[in-house]
């Protein structure tokens, strides 16, 4: 039977390359989650199949607990006995602005996707992972959740929340051979950062360049592999040397 890995926000950016790497490096059948961009998710799927890997699509909005539950229940009904043993909580959004001027929706939307999204998806899968006595969870957080970034109080709070949850959950499930880690990227070239003033941001990056999604995906692929069996509750920075 195939081994399954679910990546939230697998249609674009970092999540897309994580899907590709996990399929190619580890042979998982990758379930590519997306929220609205079906065409991009299909591109990810096609690229994996062209390389001889296995993948499928699963649409849900991570903020919608009922939709997450319905999609995963349906999947489990259609795949009796199958276990999703790798989960990458990658879906995330930014909605930057000074705290003084922040709106309620700016605050809650950003927390909803990263923090509640982590909760909604992980909680649905944890029972089965525990029964499976093996699992890997990687949460994609951010340098902002480590050191705080002005103009991103909402995003920094959301990612710091996920870092706390990562450390706590890791301790709860460690005895069952389930590791829970976080990766904290700095500036990575994706749609999320395309409108930033690169020249200005590079002042903060000792390596003097933005990172690539491939670089983050290689780290995630290692952390969800059997090779990383004694690493849990960690936050691994991948940010070109930003002190954090
Ligand atoms: P991106 O290019 O904007 O892609 C975001 C992905 O998340 C898309 O696949 C999108 O799906 C999905 N998504 C957004 N909201 C969702 C929701 N409610 N439910 C399900 N999926 C949702 O972003 P990225 O740069 O690859 O970022 C990926 C992760 O890395 C995020 O958690 C982000 O916070 C983190 N990160 C990024 C950077 C960076 O510099 N890029 C730095 C640090 C951390 P659709 O295609 O369907 O919209």
TrEMBL record:
Entries under SMART domains matching the protein: PKS_KR
InterPro entries: KR_dom (IPR057326), NAD(P)-bd_dom_sf (IPR036291), SDR (IPR050259), SDR_fam (IPR002347)
Keywords, in A-Z order: Oxidoreductase
GO MF term list: oxidoreductase activity
Record's keyword annotation contains Glycoprotein: no
Domain Ketoreductase: 3-191
Pfam families with a match to the protein in the record: adh_short
Superkingdom of this protein's organism: Bacteria
PANTHER family documented for this protein: 3-OXOACYL-(ACYL-CARRIER-PROTEIN) REDUCTASE (PTHR42879), 3-OXOACYL-[ACYL-CARRIER-PROTEIN] REDUCTASE FABG (PTHR42879:SF2)
Family affiliation: Belongs to the short-chain dehydrogenases/reductases (SDR) family.
Protein name in UniProt: Ketoreductase domain-containing protein
Organism: Owenweeksia hongkongensis (strain DSM 17368 / CIP 108786 / JCM 12287 / NRRL B-23963 / UST20020801)
Lineage summary: Bacteria, Pseudomonadati, Bacteroidota, Flavobacteriia, Flavobacteriales
